[in-house]
Write a structure and sequence with these properties.
Oligomer: single chain
Largest sheet: 22 strands, antiparallel, barrel
Shape: globular
Strand content: over 45%
Distance between the termini: 64 Å
Number of strands: 39
Structural class: mainly beta
Helix content: under 10%
């Protein structure tokens, strides 16, 4: 069988392959606000860390120890001491995520399986703004250029979050929460460089008389090109300039936030080859730009109630010569009202409306038809947390979300939390969640002009998951805390690629079902006042089956992209009042489709604070051999080599 590989964009359209008898299409992303002390999290005690407040599980402020979900929190101090230079690298700290890097800017990130170039069952938010694209229900990670120094925490929920967050929150929710402007006063300058590239950040924060605060920043990031295992250069170098601001102010019971970002940059586009003809295309660089603006108002009501309204605009531009160019503008408005507790009940409800304007410039290679499409999404949800006893809470909720493709979707959820002891929580949950169709599922045509071989999926429906979880979170001693969760999920109507033999064509349908099972656990041990150990382990098994009426050509490509297990161990040691040593080791089991060997990587970082306000860090990443791959075929994926890094940070 002959194949014609075609890559519109290694970090956009990751693989479009037309075999003699069918097509395999993959579109790649590969390729709030709660109170933590305003002090550096490095200064928090073990007990304070165990009592970090989070908001993503129930859309209200609660202790991490009381959250009835599998949630891991990455703190600002975790990010700083990891040596991470990008958001995907910071997400490696979460043991309940599979983070796979395929090139300098290309990542596949998922929770609880189904990792692929689209990774379309994971919802990602930055300060309440969803960054998934309705083009393929995934995330373009190459443009999520967050200033890591301004991140307060990242809440990573593995498991469904559809009731509160909507469709696409099937296997997990990542909520990136940045610091309030009042916690980023003064000037910060940071410069980093190493084998992976260079970064520079300049940020200034101030205040005004009425009690408001603001910050403005500029950031520039440059990524070096990588090589394959065979030593072939990969055209994946990139550069990105970004600027933005945030303002926070309030009086009495009202609080306001306004923030925005704008970016512009570009990256290389690895040239695909053709096994059929031996031809090689010359592709131009990818142009990336965008801007977003968010405003949020919150009011504290009498007797514990709260109401908030949030609205944002997000515009993105992506040009991938010669295959496609997209201009996407989204406007989103949300209202949430947490009522005052009424006896045993603590209800919360909300509604939202989202409008998207997608404009695609099609090419002879691929087309989205119609090329110009306006879409609407609307939702309403309600949830009630009931205190059955002092130590027993039952949460029931449901969401109805409407989209233009499949109409109304029903997303119910039930959670039971039993406080076995003051520092021990046993919880269970049952949820129904869905992934709604994207433009890639419904509107894609290949080639870009008739006659078409791939004719989209006009009847593609939502993928459905019924998920059951049981978990435990506890702190058996003042030095030890740990969490574990066991899950089982039944999936139906998973997307397939079906063949019509006369005349030959391929279309998308929903003729696959299956189940997944897994266990994830992690813990923290404060060995001494100066030495903290953290570890995590996760295992995952999946079984997918085609339905009798399917002749899905790509069935073998839907499995083998998730490791059977992963583990990590991190050591954070304060050597003195001015220096620290961090060592992290992570292991990911082999992937089978395509074959990616198991790997173990070691990261080491040394940090030194010669005086207040000045910090220096040096380190090395990806030790453990001559290099390793993490995702996609060995002929095209980047080999991640050991690399040195240096960072200088000054506050004044």
């Amino acid at each position: 069988m002959s194949w014609l590989p075609f890559k519109a964009h290694r970090h956009g359209f990751s693989a479009l392959c037309v075999p003699a008898v069918g097509v395999v299409l993959g579109l790649g992303a590969l390729d709030g606000h709660a109170a933590v002390s305003t002090r550096e999290l490095a200064n928090l005690s073990f007990d304070e860390l165990a009592n970090i407040r989070i908001t993503s599980v129930s859309k209200k402020d609660e202790r991490l120890g009381d959250a009835a979900a599998s949630v891991f929190v990455i703190t600002q101090d975790d990010i700083r001491r990891s040596g991470a230079i990008s958001l995907p690298e910071a997400l490696r700290l979460a043991p309940n995520l599979h983070v796979a890097q395929a090139s300098a800017n290309g990542y596949a990130i998922s929770a609880r399986g189904f990792n692929n170039s689209a990774a379309n069952k994971l919802l990602v938010l930055i300060d309440g703004r969803s960054v998934y694209t309705p083009l393929f229900s995934g995330v373009f990670w190459d443009v999520q250029n967050v200033v890591l120094e301004d991140v307060e925490r990242i809440e990573v929920i593995s498991g469904p979050g559809g009731t509160l967050w909507g469709t696409n929150a099937v296997n997990g929710v990542i909520n990136v929460i940045t610091r309030s402007a009042k916690d980023t006063q003064g000037t910060l300058a940071a410069v980093g460089a190493g084998g992976r590239g260079a970064d520079a950040v300049l940020r200034y924060g101030g205040s005004w008389r009425e009690g408001g605060s603001y910050r403005v920043y500029g950031k520039y990031a440059d990524r070096r090109p990588t090589e394959t295992a065979a030593g072939t250069a990969v055209d994946d170098a990139s550069h990105m300039a970004q600027t933005g601001f945030r303002m926070d102010w309030g009086r009495a019971d009202d609080q306001w936030t306004v923030q925005g970002n704008a970016y512009d940059g570009g990256e290389g586009q690895p040239a695909p080859g053709s096994i059929v003809t031996g031809a090689r295309f010359t592709l131009g660089p990818i142009a990336l730009s965008g801007a977003n603006l968010l405003t949020r108002w919150e009011r504290t009501l009498d007797q514990g109630g709260r109401v908030s309204v949030q609205a944002y605009y997000d515009g993105t531009r992506r040009t991938v010569p010669p295959t496609f160019s997209e201009s996407l503008d989204i406007v989103d408005v949300q209202l949430q009202h947490a009522l005052s507790p009424m006896g045993m009940h603590a209800p919360v409800w909300g509604l939202g409306y989202r409008y998207g304007m997608d404009r695609v410039d099609n090419s002879p290679f691929i087309a989205f038809l119609p090329a110009q499409l306006d879409q609407k999404w609307a939702n309403v949800f309600a949830q009630d947390e009931m205190a059955l006893r002092d130590d027993l809470r039952l949460t029931l909720g449901a969401r109805i979300e409407r989209n233009d493709y499949t109409g109304n979707e029903f997303l119910p959820n039930a959670r039971l939390a039993w406080k076995v002891a003051p520092d021990h929580l046993l919880w269970g949950a049952a949820s129904r969640t869905v992934r709604a169709p994207s433009r890639l599922d419904r509107d894609v045509f290949v080639p870009g002009v008739a006659p078409f071989l791939l004719v989209g999926g006009p009847d593609v429906r939502s993928e459905i998951a019924h998920v059951f979880e049981i978990g435990y979170r506890g702190q058996p001693s003042e030095r030890l805390s740990y969490s574990a969760a066991l899950y089982h999920a039944d999936y139906d109507h998973l997307r397939t690629q079906e063949v019509i033999r006369s005349p030959l064509s391929v279309f998308f349908s929903n003729r696959m079902e299956g189940s997944t099972n897994g266990l994830e656990m992690w813990g923290t041990y404060q060995a001494t006042p100066a030495w903290r150990l953290r570890g995590g382990w996760a295992t995952h098994r999946a079984s997918l089956t085609l339905k009798p009426d399917s002749n899905n050509l790509a069935a073998p490509l839907n499995v083998g992209k998730d490791p059977a297990h992963m583990w990590q161990l991190r050591s954070s040691l304060d050597l003195s009042g001015q220096s620290e040593l961090d060592v992290g080791i992570r292991h990911v089991a082999a992937l089978s489709n395509p074959e990616v060997p198991a790997y173990t990587a070691l990261d080491i970082r040394y940090g030194w604070r010669p005086r207040p306000g000045l910090a220096v860090a040096v380190g090395v990443q990806n030790l453990g051999g001559t290099g390793h791959g993490e995702f996609t075929d060995v002929r095209t994926r980047s080999e991640l080599m050991p690399s040195l890094f240096f960072k200088l940070l000054a506050r004044f």
